[in-house]
What does this fold into?
Amino acid sequence: MWLDRLAVQSNSSPSSSQPGSRPYSPLPRRTSSSPYVTSQRPGLTPRGSQLSLISNDSSISLLASRRVNGSSGLKQSQTTYDGPDSVEILGQILGTTSFAESAANRTTDTIGERDLELDFDFDGLSLRQLASSNKADTEDADSYQRQTTEEFETSKAQFEDLHRSIAACDGVLSSVETNLTSFRNDLAAVSADIESLQSRSTALNVRLENRKSVEKAFGPVVEELSVSPHVVSKISEGHIDETWVKMLADVDKRAASYKKSIASQGESKAWADLGPLLEKLTMKAVERIRDFIVAQIKALRSPHINAQIIQQHNFLKFKELYAFLHKHHSKLAEEISQAYMNTMRWYYANQFTRYQKALDKLKLHIIDKNDVLGHEEPTRRATVLSATKSAGPPHDAFNLGRRIDLLKTSNAAALSSYLAEEDQTTHYLEFPFRNFNLALIDNATAEYTFLATYFSPPLSLQAVSRHFNYIFEPTFALGKTLTRTLTAESYDALGLLLCIRLNQHLAFELQRRKVPAVDGYINMTTMLLWPRLQVVMDHHCESVRQLTNSLPTKPRAADQNKLSAAPHLITQRFGQILQGVLALSTEAGDDEPVVTSLRRLRSEAEAFLTRLSQSFGDKRKRERFLYNNYSLISTIISDVTGKLAVEQQDHFEGLRSAFQEGV
It folds into this structure.
């Protein structure tokens, strides 16, 4: 049998097998939990004396069968295998007896006494029957052995493939061992490099902290004692912009530190070297600032230039320049500020002179002494200030109408010169007054804000106010002249009161804008308007008084028949002018001059109506006449609000009720 031969060959020549071959074992290989062992740092010996990538119970490591030239000197485990024989295990798998037992049985040829003592049990069979049954068993065994041999021949290729796979795995594991050994050496080198870098980093950190400490201590001192060449070049030759202003502030700071140090500690070697440089640099900056501001002042004299644009973009944008100039050369700063004031004085006087001439071309209604209240048939002429202009449309000197809209309008812009020259509409005197003063207030606000921002804090607010008054002195004179021209010959009481209310609104607006420098002009205008209104109201009272005195004491009978109980024309005019004054005085106090004038005019009107009612011989007609006149006045002023209006409404309502019984 081939199995017997295989067993004899394996037992008789054990040295014929290759020393590096690995006997096949059907048992599962026991491996360690980790596929490889990481390298250790040089100088540190891992626990145990062996390093194995794969731990098993075989007698020789898989990696020990092959060694590559130049491979690492890792120790391989050389243990003796003392487990069961692989040939016996193979025999058990194939279902045959052990090769060693078969060989031992064949070597025993004699029968001993012990063999004779055996009691054979043939299960009640005779020898013939036993022989025949043994033959059948032998045939079955032979057939089984033939079947096993065929299966082995069939599985031979599989075992050869398995052997080749094991050999390939052995080669792969050997390569892995080589790579891991190289990786361990590389890790050791990297670890050494990291330790070196850590030590260098620690040293650099210490040096950095030391330098920071030194820089923190000496940095401010060195900064004060040095000026960079870039700053010197920029201040001397660079374009004046935001960067130039920042460098100028830096130079100013160093100059202040230099003066402070010299005053407190005396002049040191470092300050002695820096002092002349700072002085020259400061003088150069003063020179360049002077040239820059003078160039901007010259630009203000250019024709058709907007001064506010230059102020915002060229002056206020670099307002630190004047502060520096005033600090280091105050006399030159005063001369430059005087040049600016002279330029702006000329600028505003020129601009508002042109604007006044444009407003003079507007057509205005002329309300003269013929338009007073006591004229029964006044000459109502619609004329204008200029004799060369054509007459305007008819107007009513006693009716306020839509003239109050000028006081309530939300349009805060003044009429431009071009539109004023092209306007062909006839206006009342408050129209040019409002536009001129509105333009004046807007420009005055802009100029005062600029002066307070640009020249302060080098100059105090009192000095700024003096500069402002010097600049606007001729412009305020133009406004005063315009107001006098409009009101000197006018008997328009409603127009004068409208101008007063407009002037009061402008005063409130100036308070809101916080421009106190224009209060003098506002007060001057008020002093021109109130006395003129008093004069006009006195003329109205005087005209009514003269009309009352002209009435006959005892009218003739023929004249009594012509009298009518309808309201008189003077009553209608008085009601209209009273309604206009009350509408313009809704927020007025009791201390205004117009209140006294209005009461005087009311007394004169009542005296006229009482004197005229005496012309009626019948008392009933007389009371009806008075009732109709007072009812008309009450109706006209009934829709007006305000404290003064309520007082007048109550007064005339009482008069109407007093004469209602005779109706």
Observations:
- Residues 561-662 form one domain.
- The longest helix spans residues 127-224.
- The beta strands are 363-364, 426-427.
